[in-house]
Amino acid sequence: MDRISCLPDSILCEILSYLQTKEAVTTSILSRRWRHVWKDLQVIDLDDKPFWKSCDDEEWHARFDSSVNAILSKRNADSYAIKKFRLTCFQNSDESMSTRYLDAVIGDRLQELYLNLNLNNIDVYGDAITLPEGIFTCPSLKSLVLKGYITLFDAPMVSNVYLPSLKNLELQVRFVDIHKLLSGCPAIQNLNIDLRDFRFRIPKLQMPPTLKSLTFSEPGYYYGATEEISVREIYTPSLEYLNLSINNLEDYAMQVSVMHFPNMVEAHLSIDECDDNVDWVLLLFQALRETKFLVLKEFTTMCIFRAPGFEFVEFHCLLNLEVDVKCFDKSFLLNYLHNFHVLERLVINIWPPDDAEYYELTPATMVPNCVTSHLKSFEYTGYQDFEDEREFIAYVLQSGLVLRTVTIHLKSDFDLETKNNIVGGLAAIPRGSSMCQLNFIDQIPV
Q1: pLDDT in tens, 207-226
Q2: Full 3-state SS string of 138-205
């Protein structure tokens, strides 16, 4: 007998739990020792993809349903209750079939539930699968992930939500009464809400004060949207991670209210807002002034850097900054760097330009303190060899007294001779740091 087969069943089940359950079941044919091991699994991962064949829907549903029923009926459910259940159905799932599986696994020991479901014959407003009531009163549930054509909107059981152990909640669905759901989660710490497929505008949404991590995506248009203001309140004093994506393409009125985040570690911002509605964006920057890691996507830079009278926020703790820009402006970036006092890593990503321009600023007359005394790593993606770019690279190389690495990603459409000339010219620039290594990378075409 091999060494793995000599391991106790508990360890073998731990190994099998990293496989999809259909694959774990096939280990039963290895030998008599393995015949019944999978039946003790407390982690069930069901995916319809292996059943996708060139057969009609009726045959496909029958094959998948038969396989799942066999797995759930033959396992040792009395001795080994399911702790983690994952169901993924992309190829048109059936509501009665899905709810039947859920009724079989919901119990007092269920800790993690992941559902990603598609549904037959979806119309533009989206019919959806209604989940069993037991999901929303499961005392041991710690993580709940719901994606696809799932509804929690009109179901009466939503009013009875109470998930006292829930720490992680991820929602990417079409219908959900978010207020009722969040009100029954007193201990939630990680919240991920993606409203890009949502079918109704939510006038007001208040994030739970217990959050430590928040990922929130808001579209620019809802079915039946009105001119009323959409309010998003983020009063979460313990928040450590924020990933905010708001694309207000239709220019409907939005107000995001925030507080100071003293424990913030990392923030990612992708905000596409109209020029006359950026006040809340500036307040958000003030609230994030203690963060250590800040990522500004291209729409965010265009949003705030075009605003007349924009006042730079002082970041006294920021160590890592990643900025996407659509039109490079040396003066703007140097002025901006004066506000990052201890910055150690800077990444600038150049995106295809458009007609927008930044608010005109007076050229910086002093070298930013972070460049001379703290900056250790500088990375520039999308280098096109414009004069402003060359001057900025030279500025950083000469002024960076503690620089260790400078990495430049050359735009992909340079011919070999042009690329060699660019590399030779930049490599010849004197460097303020004797430790600085200059690296060049060919950018992969997009």
Answers
A1: 999 999 999 998 765 555 55
A2: CCCCCEEEEEEEEEECCCHHHHHCCCCCCCEEEEEEEEECHHHHHHCCCCCCEEEEECCCCCCCCCEE
Task: Give SS3 for 117.
Answer: strand
Mean pLDDT of 381-398: 92
Sequence letter at residue 181:
L
Q: How far is CA 196 from CA 78, 174, 180, 257, 358, in A?
A: 41, 9, 20, 21, 29
pLDDT in tens, 15-66: 989 998 988 888 888 888 888 899 999 999 998 877 766 556 667 677 888 8
Q: Which residue in this structure is represented by tokens 């992941």?
A: 114
Identify the band that residue 86 occupies on the pLDDT scale cut at 50, 70 and 90.
Answer: very high
H helices of 338-373, in order, are 369-373
Q: What is the 3-state secondary structure (H, E, C) of 32-52?
A: HHHCCHHHHCCEEEEECHHHC
Q: E strand or H helix at 256, and its extent? A: strand 254-258
Count of CB atoms situated within 10 Å of the CB of 121: 6
Are 166 and 143 in contact by the 8 Å Cβ rule? The answer is: yes
Q: Which tokens go with 416?
A: 């070999």
For residue 200, the one-letter residue type is: F
